[in-house]
Amino acid sequence: MEHYIQRCCIQLTNNIEETIRRGEKIDVKRVYGGYAMDVIAGTAFGVEVNSQKDLDHPFVRDAGTFLTDILYIGSYLLLLSKAVPVLVPFINFLVKHFFQPRGYKSFIRNVQRIKEERQLEENRNKKPDFLQLMMSCEENQSPNKDRMNVLSSVEVIAQASVFFFAGYESTASTLQFMAYLLALHPEVQEKIVREIKEQLGDEIPDHDGILKLKYLDSVIHETLRMYPSFYFTDRIASEEVTIKGVTIPKGAGVIIPIANVMRDPEYFPDPDNFIPERFYEGSVDPISFLAFGYGPRLCLGMRLSLLEVKMAMVHVLRRVKFLKTDDLQESLKMKPGYVLTIPDRVIAIKAVMRDVAATDLKVRKCREGTHCGRDCALKVLRMEHYIQRCCVQLTKNIEEIVRRGEKIDVKRVYGGYTMDVIAGTTFGIEVNSQKDLDHPFVRDAAGFLSDLGTQDKYLVVLAILSKVEVVAQALIFLSAGYETTASTLQYMAYCLALHPEVQEKMLREIKEQLGDEIPTYEGVSKLKYLDSVIHETQRMYNPVNSVNRVASEEVTIKGITIPKGAGVLIPITSVMMDQEYFPDPDKFIPERFYEGSINPISFLAFGFGPRLCIGMRLAQLEMKMAMVHVLRRVKFVKTDDLQDVFKIKPGSVFNIPDRVIAIKAVMRDVVATG
User: Which of 239-243, 360-364, 648-652 has the highest average model confidence (pLDDT)?
Assistant: First the structure.
């Protein structure tokens, strides 16, 4: 769910910045409510909405009216049912026939429709959300036939709806009160920003990163202590117990006053003062902090809620500063009669943009209209799950070929994988060219790329496309992203077949660093030897022979003057096969990169400096994920007919071998057993 939350965080930050530019105050509940709605819709039901912008989306509209009414009507009826339990059957009758919240039926129909669509899809494209988790426990889906361990269809919908309601209101409320408290306490706000800088720098705030933010965690806990989402919770005594002379019989209902406990000076000295340090120093008895409950009935959505709140605050506080103004009241009154903690008026907070330099978020332009560094990394991170899916299909295809006893046409196999990734990440088109070669996009793109292989046609295409820059950029990304990545994977499989010791060393690293984990963006970053193998493959078989640049100013190099505006052709292949920079350049030695002895300017596979390849991060992620998936299952084998040297097709922009590279492979479990 992490990557979906990242996307919602970016939209949240953009919305706050827009409000600041208009000179308006921020209605924190509305802004954070939209963010919470987007996250919970995606994580509970797999519905990707943008309620931060599109309030007319049917799901958003129905959920909004449903939530509004359930907060008002539901609160009074719930309080009445707790005060007079004997009235519960009557209250249920009233709810069913007279007091159904507006939007309730539409909302439930939406949930039912989503559930039915999932069931029709069977095992295809299962989403990692709460609804899918509930469906896997459903009576007709679960292999466990014990009635106590399965859910009915009605229970699945009910549980998912409860998760949605609780997850939305509690998270939005926490973010609202936290922004309010940070405006009142600027010293706390700045301390959080300093911690973010020290612990994360410019990194994307992923799950592992935010675990380092101990002070932010303390601020969230103190916010929840002062303004818990719920005033109370209820439990049933599982056995008879006596506490301070009061006996609670087995089966009795017990109301736990969350807000009262967390404002009790016995547990929290100076309870009306906002003191995050009380949690940071670890002096709080964990049983006294009841914002998420305690024990076996701890809130099911606690981890998701904390992740959501932390990610949002890191994104926002890097860019925005909440300010205390004269009209910002120092104490809040709550609406009476509600189960939830709801202020009696809108909390509107003034904010200003932070000096970007002050938070070290310097965005360096790497080419006109694009940005690198933090933004590029984040975009790649969002693509991770789609690449995972393509990797799974790639591995299945290779296994099928192995089972048939055939050699692998590595360019065709990896080319299909790369086509799928680049079509999805560049154009948002989900194709399966690894199986469906007749898809219109695949067919047309293949024809385009085939023509692109010769120099003259490439120049003609560029001349035409320069008139439509948006299309040109996308097509350049397609051609560069497809051919270069597919080519590198092809040559890498070839090198691994020729050098089995390198292949086994990579596999050992994968086992040591990842175990059986799915190779995520963070995970593959640990694979230093794999990274070295990719670099050495690109050094020996770089997809592109040369690249050209224009001199931005006059410069003299070794007595040769290059005037400003002159075109310069950089012979990538020649530089990376120069023994001055790479001793024994004709030998495949990944260790030369692993040991860090290479001058980075001499490795030009992705260019260098401000004009560094815009697709570098995506290409590296794509290659690493593919190799991890494949090498866990398959071993490339050297055969007598696998030539040690091959020729490159003349007249091509790309380094394309003059014949198909066909490599034999075997299943790794086969190797292990014999």
Answer: 239-243
